[in-house]
Amino acid sequence: MFPFLKMIIGLPRKRRTYRSYRGEVGKIAPNQLQRNFKATTPAQKWLTDITEFRVKEEKLYFSPILDYFNNEIIAYNLSRRPNFQQVQQMLEQAVRKCPKNATPILHSDQGWQYQMRGYQAFLKANGIRQSMSRKGNCLDNAAMESFFGRLKTECFHGKSFESIEALEQAIRSYVCYYNEERIQLKLKGLSPIQYRKQSLK
To answer: Name one GO molecular function term (predicted).
Structure first.
């Protein structure tokens, strides 16, 4: 149905979802994963993306890095604006947690943040190999999309938040719960952190 017809008959308009793609504003990295998400050790294949939340017309942006070895969220940043500083702070967290001598692939979509020289230079300086999905192909980053769906189902949809601050706290609490307690079939009935610790024994 056309948007103007929805307005005439009083139907709510569907809100746009956040999209970081703004065309080729920098260098596009090759798709090194090619949907091969299998990882045999921690810090081998990392995934990242940004998703948007709304509370009373305010917006909150969540930018995490997921380690596909155990689906653990190893770093994240919450911000009122989806700017480069948000991604930079997330990367700095991830580097601090990265095992010595590891050279992970960090896969993303073609969002403008990931095309920036500063982003790409930071990855190179820290031994991180960049990978990008093909344009408009969410299946190339399916595991990250799956996490966002789970997060919003379990932490956001059907719930009422009085403020952005309340939502921010809920997301922080959920990430702790998800990493430490939420069991997954892929991880043999263990949580991400439990699985990682067991694999290192």
So the answer is: nucleic acid binding
